[in-house]
Design brief:
Elements (H helix, E strand, L loop, with lengths): L14 E8 L15 E6 H12 L3 H8 L10 E9 L10 H26 L8 E10 L5 E8 L16 H10 L7 H15 L3 H16 L6 H13 L3 H24 L7 H21 L3 H10 L5 H11 L2
Antiparallel strand pairs: 1-3, 1-4, 2-3, 4-5
Length: about 325
Amino acid sequence: MKSDIVSNFDIPQNVTYFGLLGNVNYSIQFIEFPNKLKVEKWPKSRIVELIAEMTDQSIFEIEGRFETIYGCGDKKSAYCITTQLLDPPKQNDETSVSYFLKRHEYQSAFIEEIEQRINLLRLCSKGDIRLSFSCFYTYDDQGKRELDALHDNFNELRNWKFHVSPNEIENFNDFISTTRFPLNHEYLQLAFETFLLSYEAHDDRLSFLALMIALETLFNDGNQELRYRLARGSAVFLGKSSRESHHIFNDIRKLYDKRSTLVHTGDSKKLSSSDLLLLQNYVRDSLRLLIQCNLPKKDLTNRLTVEGFGALNRIKKFGKIKQG
C-alpha cells in the first residue's frame, strides 16, 4: 500500500524516517501528521542513542543538546514522529549522481510537508514547536542501522511549549489537514511568512516588529491613520462581543505606540515579553481565522468598514457565503 506521497519510483521496503519534536507536551499525540507519521513517546536514552549513532557523535554531546538546542527539557522522554517509508526512490539503471539528486528531492519534499504542518500548528498554539532533528536510515543484512540522510536544526529555541486543549483538537486537525500552500490570497501568504519570521528572529524587538508588519498586512488598506486602522480592524474581526472588541482595540493601540517608539527612537525599554506574546496571540488568531474565511483583501476591508465591534461570527458567516 502506498503512502500519501505520490511517487513514480520503485519501492524498497526498509527505509525508516525519524523526527524529533521540540517544545511539545503530551497533547502533540493527538495531532495528525501527513504520510502516516506516528507520534510516539520515546525514552530519552533511546533518542540519544539513535542520534549519536546517526551523527557519529558521543552520547555526552547529544545529551548536552537535548534540553536546550533540541527543546526537550530535562525530561526522561520526548516525542518524535516515525514511519516506514513505502515509496522512496530506488537506484535503477542510472548514474550515482542522478540517483542522489532524485533521492535528495524526495527527502526534501517529505520534510517540507512535515515542516509546513508544524508551521500551521504555530497558528494553533503559542508554542515554539519545531522539527529539531530528523533522519532517514536503513538496516543492513545484520540489522544494523545505516544513515541515509539527516537534518539537524541548531536554531535557538524559545521556551514556549506547544499545547492544545482537548476541545480544540478536532478543529485544529481539520485546519492543518485542509490548508494548502501557497495560501489562496497573497496578503495572507505574506502575513503568514512574516508571522513565522517572528519565531526565527530570536530578538524580542525584531520579533515584535515582524508581528506588527504581519498585522498591518492583514488589516491596513492605506486609507486611514495606521494606528487606528490596525486597532479597529483587529477589534472588529476578533471580538466576539462589543466589550471584547473594546478591549482588543485598546490593546492594539498600546502595542502600536510601543512599535512607534521602538522604530523612531530605538528605545525598547517599555517593550516586554508579555507584549510580544500578546501581539503574537492577536496575529495568530487573526491569521488562522482569516485563512478559514478565505476572503480577498478587498472584501475583508469592505466588511470591516461596515461592521461594528463584536462582528467575528458575522464575518465568518459572510466568508462561508462567499465561498459558496
